[in-house]
Design a protein that fits this description.
Radius of gyration: 17 Å
CATH superfamily: P-loop containing nucleotide triphosphate hydrolases
Number of domains: 1
Helix content: 25-40%
Oligomer: single chain
Largest sheet: 5 strands, parallel
CATH class: Alpha Beta
Number of strands: 7
CATH topology: Rossmann fold
Distance between the termini: 10 Å
Strand content: 15-25%
Strand order of the largest sheet: 2-5-1-6-7
CATH architecture: 3-Layer(aba) Sandwich
Structural class: alpha/beta
Order of helices and strands: HEHEHHEEEEHHE
Length: 201
């Protein structure tokens, strides 16, 4: 299904309704951010992306929890805060949302605001459909669920390249991808609830 076809499905489902929330889930390296941006461009005015990454716990918190080396795993996010945001987005016109600043490597509370005119929301992130608590509580606020499923060898290739692009050497890039990203990807693919739409990335 192309972004245009998925946009058509969202328009059909959202017709005559208020705010419509599409969950776009998938493992790291699947292409969620790219697809979300393309989808919002197809949908046009009134559509916007809401990223899950704004709920990353800060590095000092991860250090205290012993999770710094596993940053990006489900436990390294404020999952309850994410569920609360979904509840607010489903019921309130104007809602401040946090954004993750990759340059600063931290989340910025109130990084943006979703307004009443933002009717078609595309929420993107790894763990949107995770069946573990409290992540699973978010599913009740999604009007459409989409999973990007990419074969593990392709995910590995992309994730190694991502770390190479961040300046790591070949050995370090492979270690980061295989030591953290790929275990997180396996968890997404194994432990997520079935999506209504499954796409290859």
């Amino acid at each position: 299904m192309t972004p245009a076809a998925l946009a058509d499905l969202i328009r059909q489902r959202a017709a005559g309704r208020g705010r419509f929330i599409t969950a776009l889930a998938g493992p790291p390296g699947a292409g969620k951010s790219t697809l979300a941006a393309a989808l919002v461009a197809e949908l046009g005015p009134g559509a916007r992306v809401v990223p899950m990454d704004g709920f990353h716990l800060d590095n000092p918190v991860l250090d205290r929890l012993g999770l710094r080396a596993r940053k990006g795993c489900p436990e390294s996010f404020d999952a309850a805060g994410f569920v609360h945001l979904m509840r607010r987005l489903a019921g309130e016109d104007q809602v401040a949302i946090p954004l993750f600043d990759r340059g600063l490597d931290l989340a910025r509370a109130g990084g943006d605001v979703v307004g009443a005119e933002d009717r078609l929301l595309v929420v993107e992130g790894n763990y949107l459909l995770l069946q573990a608590e409290p992540w699973c509580q978010a599913r009740g606020f999604f009007d459409l669920t989409v999973m990007l499923a990419v074969p593990e060898p392709e995910l590995e290739r992309r994730l190694v390249q991502r770390w190479l692009d961040h300046g790591l050497d070949a050995a370090a890039a492979r270690a980061r991808a295989l030591g953290n990203d790929i275990p997180n990807a396996r968890r997404v693919l194994a432990d997520s609830a079935p999506a209504e739409v499954v796409l290859g990335g």
